[in-house]
Amino acid sequence: MNFPWLQAMLQTTDPLFPIGSYAHSYGLEELCASGEVHDAPSLLQYLESIVFLNLQEFELPYLRFTYDAAAKLKFDDICQLDEEISASKPCKELRQASSAQGKQRLRLLSKLRPSPFFAELKQLKLEKRITPHHITIFACENVDLETPLEAALVAWSYQTLAAPCAASLKLIRIGQEGAQTVLTESLQKIEPVIQNSLSIERDFAGAFLPTLDIASQRHEHAFSRLFIS
User: What CATH number does domain 36-197 carry, 3.40.50.720, 1.10.4190.10, 1.10.940.10, 3.40.50.1110?
Assistant: First the structure.
């Protein structure tokens, strides 16, 4: 078995890879504070409703669009897609979280595995043509690694589901076993989400998530909080 991309992909999707994911709950903290998420079943419901919808209708399609543009070295298209990702995030916290992780991922990748591709992305960042957002750099990274698209989609889905499960350990009485149970159940249902995302065209990509947007806006003004977002 020869998967030259696998080791690097495992490294950069591991919680040990320091892009700041541990500091974000992506709106979950406020949903826990309001009581909407308070135990394992409600956490699973959150993942299978809000997170699944966002993955299927927005994040995975835009990961695919950016992957395709990067594979063809269409940097103007990458810039435009990055701008659309930014415009899709009306809440400042979520927009800044995506931006911070994208910039840190690009900085680390440029240091650990320098390549002309990452150098071009850094130049675009200096010229303020890309933010860059996390999805943008993740897609470009996996093109540079020659990771198959399906593997990249699965990896993004995994880390998107694992992040709130990790955050839940600090927010509700769930325990590590409970969090892993929720993560396992959500992963068992993720394949149709990934498959459905492949049919989403660019003109129709996007998810309306008022519950998450309102929670993030409230979190920004919370008196005290454990997470940045």
Answer: 1.10.4190.10
If residue 12 lies in a helix (H) or strand (E), which one and from where to where? helix 6-13
Task: List, for residues 77-124, the tens digit of each pLDDT value.
Answer: 999 999 999 999 888 888 998 999 999 999 999 999 999 999 999 999
Structure token pair of residue 11: 């490294």
State the Cα–Cα distance between residues 91 and 16, nearest whole angstrom: 27
**Residue 21 identity (one-letter amino acid):** S
| pLDDT tens for each residue of 27-52 | 899 999 999 999 999 999 999 999 99
Residue type, 3: F
Rounded to whole angstroms, the Cα distance separating 85 from 20 reads 19
